[in-house]
Amino acid sequence: MAFPCYAVNLPSAPTEQDFRPVDENIVELGRLLFFDKVLSGNRNISCATCHHPRFGTSDGLSLGIGEGGHGVGTERVPGTGKARIKKRVPRNSLGLWNLGAVDQSILMHDGRISEADTYENGFNTPAEEWLPAGFNDLLAVQAIFPLIAQFEMAGNLNENEVIGAVHDRIDYAWPIIEERVRQIPGYRLLFVKSFAHIKHPSEISIVDIGNAIGAFVNHQWRSYDSPFDDYVKGNGDALTDKQIHGLALFFGEGKCANCHSGKWFTDNKFYALGLPAFGPGRTRRYNDIARDLGRMAESDDLDDIYRFRTPPLRNVELTSPYGHNGAFKTLEGIISHHLNPEVSRSSWSISQAVLPEIREFKKVDLIIQNDRLEMERYTQKLDIEPANLGEDDIDALTAFLLSLTGRSALAQSMIIPDEVPSGLKVDK
Ligand code: HEC
Ligand code: HEC
Asked: 41-92: per-residue pLDDT in tens?
């Protein structure tokens, strides 16, 4: 099969040079930390619980079940008794592919963690000027924030010392977590062995913990060995006819590449797509409507209301459900939504999301849809123009997106460690 006759500009094939350099000595340590629940307030959840290799580095749920829950992915349940979760994570867990790329300078659905010199420490984060110094890069910085997020890893007030400290000041819990790690014999050895500057375990810091996890994520989840990459490098047979049709639509008439541009299929900018609203929302202290203001909550710019970051699309096949709240479990669903958000919203039902049956949350899920004023504001804000594509086109676009799945991305289960230095159970 030859290249399509449509004149389309394809992104060039990625190489190792597209990534920030990694200190190889600390990657293995980062892997163990990523899977170790000891970093969470109640020692019951790890990064991997919500970014699991079996679920494409995400969790298979629309809205994740954080600390207090049990199990992995779509089998995860909300727990029992006092530990039972009080709230779900308000947004869909993101996949972690290719985030170590040099041009990946902003993270999260609302971009609240980025490279910027707002606080004269190189990074703009919720910790503002209280961010400790010494991080290698953005992924290292990001890694210390889930640890202090109440519904992700920190836990609820009065349950443990970590969350109590966070309540006093955002940076007060990190010394408690580093002290925990310093006490574990396996980590004492590994940190001294892996980091040139650590001579004694008492020197282990939260910055080292972040640097190790960041190095692991950067190193492990580089992924650009997909059929699409073969095609870009000149193997015309790597894609089916349908996929080539989808590719032409993606970079042409469908205008997908206006936003999903470049090697990673994102411009890292923010747009309002008006996804069906549901769930607990990201409420703010003086404003507890179950809504999610998106980028605006971070930028304080009214123009950014309901905008979310364009997600990268490599390995998107593996990270269902889709959108910032996981409103769509299928690629067809989220693509159709782009083409006509209004029609999509009116025909949407919550069965298109993937939510575990939790009786007390069902009541909350659709509350926002009954808030007439909020829904009026929400439906008016759209940054996408309807495109006139039919069912066959959606089918072709879906087929094209499947060509972005890397071969090595499908073989990740061997990175799950049998055990971790704390001795706590690993989510398999
Ligand atoms: C309870 C589930 C949960 C846990 C535990 C968790 N995450 Fe996440 N992660 C999420 C969700 C949800 C998002 C998106 C949040 C948002 O944008 O508001 C996210 C976003 C991210 C991102 C940004 C990805 C991007 O494209 O911007 C990175 C990196 C990340 N997590 C790494 C980690 C690491 C490292 C840990 C452990 C220290 C961790 N996560 C623990 C759920 C979780
Ligand atoms: C105006 C910019 C823009 C255009 C054009 C655009 N997208 Fe998107 N896309 C986004 C944003 C922003 C999101 C996330 C929206 C949210 O979470 O609320 C998204 C989400 C997605 C997702 C879900 C990914 C995930 O991991 O959740 C897929 C798949 C997708 N887009 C494919 C496409 C296709 C195919 C086209 C062309 C028909 C397209 N997009 C055109 C901005 C755009």
From this structure: 999 999 999 999 999 999 999 999 999 999 999 999 999 888 899 889 999 9
Length of the chain: 428
pLDDT reported for residue 358: 87
Supply the residue whose CA is at minimum distance from atom 12 of ligand 1: 93
- Which of 106, 247, 256, 315 best tests ligand 2's pocket when mutated (most atoms within 8 Å of CB)? 256
Q: How confident is the model at residue 5 (pLDDT cuts 50, 70, 90)?
A: very low
Cis peptide leading into 90, omega within 30 of 0?
no
Q: How far is the CA of 416 from the centre of ligand 2 (A)?
A: 31
| Ligand 2: residue whose CA is nearest its atom 2 | 259
Does the beta carbon of 141 sit less than 6 angstroms from any atom of ligand 1? no
Ligand 2 center from residue 183 Cα (angstroms): 45
Question: Whole-number mean pLDDT of the chain?
Answer: 95
**Among residues 68, 106, 59, which one has the least CA distance to residue 87?**
68
Q: Which of 152, 150, 151, 130 is nearest to 141 (CA)?
A: 130
Rounded CA separation 428/425 (Å): 9
